[in-house]
Amino acid sequence: MTTTLPVPIEMRLPGPQWRPAAPEQLGVTNAAFLAVRSIDDDSGYHPTIVVSGGLRDDDADLATIGDESLALLRAQGAEEVELLQRTPGGEAAPSLSQLIGAVASVEGRRYDLRQIQVVQVMPDVDDPAKRAVVLFTFSCTFGQFDTIGPEFQRFMASVRPAGEAGVDEPAES
């Protein structure tokens, strides 16, 4: 079922090859937004961008939230899940980027996948004990990563709080 994010955001897809899709049609749960990329290779795997999130009232740090995401990936059936890189960031709002390697079966076919996850945390201005957490997840095959990975960077550069100046084109929300 499609969910809503705890904070409104605007974003722009990184190119015409990307199309929004209904998360539930692809079996994706707890997603507020899903985009699928058309491909011109014979891998059979269509890269995805998934945006999800929720409110938290615990004191889990970013590394713990990142570890929870790895555990969820394993619980969803991915094998050989390995954290390849983790980078903290963000000045105004804390964030964490992580690169993950995993093997997953999709429609009976096994894929060596790469996943980039960006976790952004925004404290509630009225109640500092609460935080909005938004998770941006990009998935592609190992072979697609060098070509398609920069598209995720363009996508992340377009993400803004809804209504913030600086987005010069209509945004996907």
Morphology call: globular
Percent of residues in helices:
10-25%
Give the topology string: H per helix, E per strand. EEEEHEEEEHE
Largest sheet: 7 strands, antiparallel
Computed structural class: alpha+beta
Strand content: 35-45%
Report the count of strand segments: 9
C-alpha Rg (nearest Å) = 16 Å
What is the strand arrangement across the widest sheet? Answer: 2-3-4-8-7-6-5
Point out poorly predicted stretches. 166-173
Q: Average pLDDT across residues?
A: 87
Query: What's the number of helices?
Result: 2
**Spatial gap, N to C terminus:** 17 Å
Brief overview:
The protein has helices at residues 62-75, 142-158; strands at 9-10, 18-20, 33-37, 48-56, 79-89, 95-106, 109-123, 131-141, 160-161.
Could you explain the architecture of this structure?
The C terminus is likely disordered. The longest helix has 17 residues. This protein starts with 8 loop residues before the first strand and ends in a 12-residue tail after the last strand. It has 173 residues and is an alpha+beta fold. The protein contains two helices and nine strands, in the order ββββαββββαβ. A hairpin with a 2-residue loop joins β6 and β7. It has a seven-stranded antiparallel beta sheet, with helices on both faces. Strands 1-9 form a two-stranded antiparallel sheet.
